[in-house]
Structures are given as structure tokens and as C-alpha cells.
């Protein structure tokens, strides 16, 4: 009677699959190897432990260095975003002066870039645009609150800047002087 009960399909013994069995097997083999090493060669076992401790210390030192560098970098970035005062005032006049200096040394493309920043800072000071270093000159043209003829002039200035900087059109002293004269002639307060 007992044989018929155990012969039923529900009592059939089947080995289940163990998806992590190979890891347990590797762990057991490793522990056996460490035990054999400890028993067979205590000096080599101690050297292994010292080596592993040195590797762990190196990992911890590196992690500490990365953490410290990250915290210091974050602190510097926070100080910059809080608006710490730069060592010198860089307003529109500073950029125009730097542009003129670059032009005197024959660096006309650099002079145009600097003069463009000066122009945008000037337009920001009269309330026509809101200056942000990450904007492109074309974005300033789109957002500028100017009279239609001044809006068109700003568009022409930015178009000339793009032609010289990105379009490969050569920029010489005359082209820079013309651009600079058009950029600094009277801009009016924004239209309402």
C-alpha cells in the first residue's frame, strides 16, 4: 500500500534547476583552495591576505580621492553660480575695448566675436535683450525688443558676423571697422 502511494506522480523526485548553482560551486571551490593554502603554506596565505588588504586600501583611497574631487568641484561650481565677483568688470565697454585691441593685432574674427558680446551686453543694459552667455547671436535677434529698422540692422550685423566667422568670408580691417561702426551707432530703448 505504501509503495502505491509513493509511486504516484506527486512523489516523483526530480532535481530542480538552480540558476545560481555554478556561483555556489565556484565559491565552494575557492574556499577549499583558501583552506588548503592556509593549511599547506601559511606564509603564502599571509602574503595573499596582505596583497588583498593593499588592493582594498588602494580602492578606498581612490574612492576617497574621487569623492573629495567631486565635492571640491561642486563647491567651485556653486561659488561661480552664486555670482562671485570676477577679478575685473567685463561690461560692454570692456568687450568693445578688447575687440579693438584684437583688431589692432590683426585678429579680426576674434575682434568680431568680442564686439558682438559687447553689443549684446549694451542691448541688455538698455533692456532690449536679456544677455546670457549660452545664447547664440541669432537668438538675440529673435528676442530683441527693438524698432523694426533697428531689428533689421541687428539681423544684418549678426548675418555679417556669421558670414565672417562660419561662412569663410574673409574679415579685414575695413570689414571690422564697418561692422563696429554699425554696432555702436545709436540704439534706442526697447519698443513697448
Task: Give structural notes.
By secondary structure, the chain is mainly alpha-helical. Helices cover 69% and strands 0% of the residues. It contains eight helices and no strands. α5 runs parallel beside α8. The longest helix has 40 residues. The radius of gyration is 36 Å and the shape is elongated. The N and C termini lie far apart (102 Å).
Give the distance, in angstroms, between the N- and C-terminal Cα atoms. 102 Å
Strand tally is 0
**Major sheet description:** none
Helix amount: 55-70%
Which structural class do you get from the secondary structure elements? mainly alpha
Low-confidence stretches: none
Amount of beta strand: under 5%
Secondary-structure element pattern, one letter each = HHHHHHHH
Question: On the 0-100 scale, what is the average pLDDT?
Answer: 86
Rg value: 36 Å
Amino acid at each position: 500500500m505504501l509503495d502505491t502511494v509513493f509511486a504516484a506522480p506527486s512523489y516523483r523526485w526530480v532535481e530542480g534547476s538552480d540558476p545560481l548553482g555554478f556561483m555556489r560551486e565556484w565559491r565552494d571551490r575557492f574556499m577549499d583552495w583558501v583552506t588548503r593554502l592556509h593549511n599547506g603554506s601559511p606564509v603564502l596565505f599571509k602574503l595573499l591576505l596582505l596583497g588583498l588588504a593593499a588592493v582594498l586600501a588602494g580602492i578606498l583611497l581612490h574612492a576617497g580621492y574621487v569623492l573629495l574631487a567631486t565635492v571640491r568641484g561642486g563647491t567651485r561650481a556653486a561659488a561661480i553660480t552664486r555670482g562671485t565677483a570676477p577679478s575685473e568688470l567685463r561690461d560692454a565697454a570692456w568687450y568693445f575695448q578688447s575687440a579693438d585691441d584684437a583688431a589692432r593685432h590683426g585678429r579680426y574674427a576674434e575682434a568680431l566675436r568680442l564686439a558682438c558680446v559687447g553689443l549684446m551686453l549694451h542691448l541688455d543694459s538698455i533692456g532690449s535683450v536679456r544677455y546670457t552667455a549660452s545664447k547664440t547671436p541669432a537668438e538675440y535677434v529673435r528676442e530683441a525688443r527693438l524698432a523694426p529698422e533697428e531689428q533689421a540692422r541687428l539681423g544684418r550685423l549678426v548675418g555679417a558676423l556669421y558670414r565672417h566667422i562660419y561662412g569663410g568670408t574673409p574679415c579685414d580691417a575695413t570689414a571690422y571697422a564697418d561692422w563696429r561702426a554699425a554696432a555702436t551707432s545709436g540704439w534706442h530703448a526697447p519698443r513697448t
